[in-house]
Amino acid sequence: MVNVYKCLQSTYCSTIVRHAADERKTIDVVNLDPAAEYFDYQPLVDIRELIHLDDVMADGELKFGPNGGLVFCMEYLMENPDWLEEQLGDVDDDYVLFDCPGQIELYTHMTIMRQLVDLLQQRWNFRVCGVFLVDSQFMVDGSKFLSGTMAALSAMVNLELPHINILTKMDLLSKSARNQIDRYLQPDPHSLLGDVQTGSKWSEKYRHLTDAIGRLVEDYSLVRFYPLNIKDEENIADLLLMIDNMIQYGEEADVKTRDFEYEDGDGDDGGDES
Ligand SMILES: Nc1nc2c(ncn2[C@@H]2O[C@H](COP(=O)(O)OP(=O)(O)OP(=O)(O)O)[C@@H](O)[C@H]2O)c(=O)[nH]1
Ligand SMILES: [Mg+2]
């Protein structure tokens, strides 16, 4: 059994890898972004060794732009699952992050990522958790928050995975923006809807629709966001614990040593850091 989660942001991966290393745990990253330029960790697998976006775009026959090229690369990956399997090697019981490209359509309505998830879960027995990252700076007013919520919901429905939504870059928010987001994170539908409804003619016209969507999301607890400040180690640890619980990571492995305090010691819970 292998444990994995997929994510959409490189900074998230490097933050988690570093945090795990500090705790003497190894987390591997698979880079699935064919356009990635730089990361501060050594990926276990790198799609760019299979196919690179620049090469696809430079192809005189294909004539792809960045978006079409990216989709082509992802489709090419899915046509070569053996390559991925071989590159992953023996990852039993490992914790692997899949750093995925940021193009939203891959998650909301295309099927490529869904195919990848099926491959991981069904063919290779991975336990997968989707980690959907949204820049908190784009969530500080009511209508944007509702749009971000809809995008997250769409990805959740499309991927059908244990799923967590994260608000990133919390460290960059001003105090007032932080307060604003806190209001939306509290289960208080009226603060959010109140914000959306004020203002333009358009929002007046569609007030009832916005109202209904907002109530639906609230009443069924469809979407929740978890704020992440990468400078706050406790915040990162809480998040990782939540994800571990979602995929039941580590439940079969050394329960005795992991689940209890183990301060002075010899910590034999996996000293195999690279
Ligand atoms: N201060 C701060 N900067 C961040 C945070 N997350 C990302 N950044 C910065 O935002 C920029 C983009 O971050 P990336 O991690 O490359 O984002 P990405 O989603 O992987 O981007 P693509 O792969 O191009 O889709 C980088 O310059 C990061 O340093 C954060 O939580 N705090
Ligand atoms: Mg990236």
From TrEMBL:
It holds the Pfam family ATP_bind_1. Keywords: GTP-binding, Hydrolase, Nucleotide-binding. GO terms for molecular function: GTP binding; GTPase activity. It comes from the Eukaryota. Transmembrane segments: none annotated. InterPro entries: Gpn, Gpn3, P-loop_NTPase. Small GTPase required for proper nuclear import of RNA polymerase II and III (RNAPII and RNAPIII). May act at an RNAP assembly step prior to nuclear import. PANTHER family: GPN-LOOP GTPASE 3, XPA-BINDING PROTEIN 1-RELATED. Binds to RNA polymerase II (RNAPII). Belongs to the GPN-loop GTPase family. This is GPN-loop GTPase 3. It comes from Cryptotermes secundus. The lineage of its organism: Eukaryota, Metazoa, Ecdysozoa, Arthropoda, Hexapoda.
